[in-house]
Amino acid sequence: MDTNLVSSLIPDNRAFKRASSKLAALFSATQHRLPTTIGKKVLLLAAIGGGAFSLVRFIKTKKNNKQSALVLDIKDKDKDQPKKKNVTRVDAVFFRRLAKIVKICIPSMRSKEFLSLLYLTALLFARTMLSVSIAEIAGKNAQNLVARKWKEMGEGVLKFALVSVPASFVNSSLKYETDMLALRFRKRLSEYVHKEYLEGVNFYKASHLGGSDKIDNADQRVTSDIEQFCNSMSNLYTTLFKPVLDLVLFTRKLVVVMGWGSPLLMFGYFIVSGFLKKLIMPPFGRLTAKQSELEGNYRTVHQRLITNAEEIAFYDGSRKERQIINLSFGDIYNHTSYVSYLKCLVGIFDGFLVKYCASIVGYGCMVLPIYFGIRGSSGKDSTELTKDYIRNTQLMVALSQAIGQLVLLGNKITNMAGYTSRVSELLEMIKSIKERGTSQFTIVHEDEIPLSSANSPMISDKYDAAVDMSAWLQEWRRRSDELRAVKRSLYNNTVRQVSGGGTFVEGDYIKFEDVSIVSPEGKLLVSDLSFQVNPNSNVMITGPNGSGKSSLFRILGELWPLHCGTVIKPRKEDILFVPQKPYLVLGTLRDQIIYPHNAEDMKKFGVTDDDLQHLLTTVDPNGTILRQWSWDNRKDWNSAFSGGQKQRIAMARLFYHRPQFAILDECTSAVSDEVEDKIYNTCKVLGITLFTVSHRPQLRAHHDYQLLFDGRGKWEWTKINAAEDMKKPLSFK
Ligand SMILES: Nc1ncnc2c1ncn2[C@@H]1O[C@H](COP(=O)(O)OP(=O)(O)OP(=O)(O)O)[C@@H](O)[C@H]1O
């Protein structure tokens, strides 16, 4: 502020005059330190450079954000479904939805939440009253100080100390009550959602039945989104109530001491700046909802990793899963940096218009009546003017803060619109599921199947259905032999950390020497196991439930430590595990076959979609999969495929990788005997040596040896005589 203007307001105060002239001297010294022209140039360059840098960053951030939205579509979402309406604006829909949720959070006037709201209101009211009285005391103290009235000054300080006790209590209680209100809202809303979501089989329908009722990231919505919504609602009440109350009280006070002119000027200013702000405001509601969705995706991919940890570990799928998780996090990173940047831009605007410009207008409002000597200021002495000045400054600052907070409230409300839409969608979808409960699914006729399915590779021009399959499989075997070295380069397994007391040795065959299988809980499942499997001699493993069949593979796959003995086995990438529970990765139909490879790996190996089609047709001759989906289709494959289709996909994956050894852990139980025979014959043609866990005697026909566990630690290794043993039960001798 102009120091001369201040001095003129307080003409008798010499100390103040001295201080202000020192300040003015300091100011002018700083101004003259740089030659003016150079200083201006430097400032101009800095401003242009800063502006250009900000612009480039803004464009870059915006571009990144767009790319991520295009590339990172990794959600378990059916793209063929029509888009759900997603309203995240602050409009009538928002207020309607908000009113519905508020009704759930505050069910009655006698509810805890309503009482909590009343208490919070009383605290807010008390805080404003205390602020007004602190402003009065501060003004009086300043007056007494300037007038050197030490006794009154002492009383003033004492009053200040007395007021500070309830002020501290009120401030801390306000924070506590706001948090508690949010927690109470969350309890109500969560319990309501739990009741609806877990009623009957709603949770199943919500996550497994497709269509517009399908809830994506239900867990994220129920846990995080509800919490965020309740926090923002509780905070909104506090931040809305305070400025409104301040506005009324401080305006009243100001009108008494300064008349209507100054407050009206202040209001006018904020109405204009509020309008300007609305013009430039980015769609923060939609961006907040998007942020929650991305956080939900990120949570989902981590959750999938935990749920399917064993299957992924068996497939050695960490590389692919890392890509998926990084992609999902990258999406969050890009989006968050874009939103932060927009917030920064809006913050610059807010700071300029709402804080600094408002202060300038405030000073104008305060100084002009004194300057022109209106409202009785002309006859006042310096102590009176100092008192007025300090009191009016505090009132004006409080008023401008109150109006500023109301203008800034727009940011909070748009943010809240995002959470409101996420929570409302959840409630609306659950309601729709409940209402649809007994309705039937609509039959879609062949000619109504969407275009993407009509493009399915089954009718692709390139695919030659009449090709001689056994010749094609021989050719595939030759090609995959050539590719083995390239595939090996994908994994860096030469140095392996082996935990436990036993030894792993690399070899061209599988051999167990005096190996005991011990469970993580220390239970001895099989003791001193010794056998050898050479290439092209298949082994069948049988035994009662829980006898340690899968555990044998956990050791072979190095998921469990080797307790004792020696295991000789080929490199990790030469053994493929096909677990009991077929694992389906997030991604396209193509990704399901080539897992844990990705599309780039497949291209690198020279494998085409037609090759994949041949492989899939081997296990799915009627085309139950390819007639429905094309290679680029993305689905929630766990729900989309039937049990048998999942197993067929797992087998096509086995043929794609064509390892030297394959471990089949009861993974053909859901396909017909005919398809099962076909699968085993194809493995023979491709030269895959099998290790099969099965309880079905007829599978002996495809195996050379049998390893039998008795469930009490004993085992038996026998040569299979298919003709004799076919009908024998699979029991210990
Ligand atoms: N992660 C684990 N922690 C503790 N115990 C485990 C774990 N995994 C398996 N077990 C135990 O090890 C034992 C053998 O399990 P395994 O899965 O090898 O049985 P299985 O012979 O394959 O049975 P099934 O025929 O039912 O598949 C079981 O008693 C099981 O409870």
From TrEMBL:
GO terms for biological process: fatty acid beta-oxidation; long-chain fatty acid import into peroxisome; peroxisome organization; very long-chain fatty acid catabolic process. Keywords: ATP-binding, Membrane, Nucleotide-binding, Transmembrane, Transmembrane helix, Transport. GO terms for molecular function: ABC-type transporter activity; ATP binding; ATP hydrolysis activity; long-chain fatty acid transmembrane transporter activity. InterPro entries: AAA+_ATPase (IPR003593), ABC1_TM_dom (IPR011527), ABC1_TM_sf (IPR036640), ABC_transporter-like_ATP-bd (IPR003439), ABC_transporter-like_CS (IPR017871), ABC_transporter_sub-D (IPR050835), P-loop_NTPase (IPR027417). This is ABC transporter D family protein. It comes from Polysphondylium violaceum. The keyword Calcium does not apply. The chain crosses the membrane at residues 42-59, 117-135, 254-276, 353-374. Belongs to the ABC transporter superfamily. ABCD family. Peroxisomal fatty acyl CoA transporter (TC 3.A.1.203) subfamily. SMART domains: AAA. The lineage of its organism: Eukaryota, Amoebozoa, Evosea, Eumycetozoa, Dictyostelia. It is a multi-pass membrane protein.
